[in-house]
Amino acid sequence: MDPRYSRQVVLGEIGHEGQKKLCASSVLVVGCGALGCTAAELLVRAGVGLVRIVDRDVVELGNLHRQLLFDEDDVDACLPKAEAARRKLQRINSTVTIDARIVDVAPQNVLPLIDGVNLVVDGTDNIETRYLLNDACLERDIPWVYGGAVGTTGMIMNILPGVGPCLRCVFPEPPPPGSLPTCETQGVLNTLTTTVASQQVSEAIKILTGSPMVSRQLVTIDPWYSKHISIEIQRIPECPACGHGKRDFLDGLELTEITRLCGRNAVQIDPAQDLGVSLEALRDKLTSLGKVEFNGHLVRFWVDDYEVLVFADARAIVRGTTDPVIAKRIYARYIGA
Prior knowledge:
By secondary structure, the chain is of the alpha/beta class. It contains 12 helices and 14 strands.
């Protein structure tokens, strides 16, 4: 057994057999923000054999107070979060396979992303993606660990298909857009995000090793006010997702192609299909605009008062506006209809 796991193996709750299970496991971390960074690092340090990281965004200066895998060099290089995380994590544990995917999780790609993994850890920053994950994991019978953090309060819950309640048993329908507090509007305590992610990974390790101590509760924590509350949640027979088998979000009924990035003064344009784009060819085509950058993972260029990031799957983020009409016009003019 690799000596790096010696302190974990000696722990009676895990032992040699538990460590073997971890090394043979694969986990998908959806989102590489504050929760995802900490979760991915803990999973890699624990020796999970394959960690797949999915994130649509790039590292920004405002991320650094809570997203522990990133630094100022990543900001300067405009690195995609998934790639920046992969580089750091591979240096932490070279025996683990790090599979970085620079994509936006959507109905058309979520099933391929979760296929082959034993568990999903939620590191997302929006409610729609969580409902999509709930549908996909129910469809594939894969457990996932929900986590959320805003202000000083966080929540954690295990979703175990066929065993316990799913997300829609607790929250049957997503709240109206703009009705929930966000990190941008309410802020977030950086110790909260590490606390929530640590609890998520504790649950993940228990699930992967077959521990009987897997939580069946919805847990809320507030490290600022020293609060910890556990609530028993029951499976709801009339739940539209796990009770009646509806897959509203997986069917794409609730997701759109154009997304305002909350609090970011930016709009994402995501084609309905992965059209693919030659980033080198796009860079060459756009050189007449002036400053164009290419870092091997995305093309970055400026037009008028807008900054545009284009990824290999033809997805783009237009910074400097929250108007979908403006963003789509820029996309059509410089990238494609």
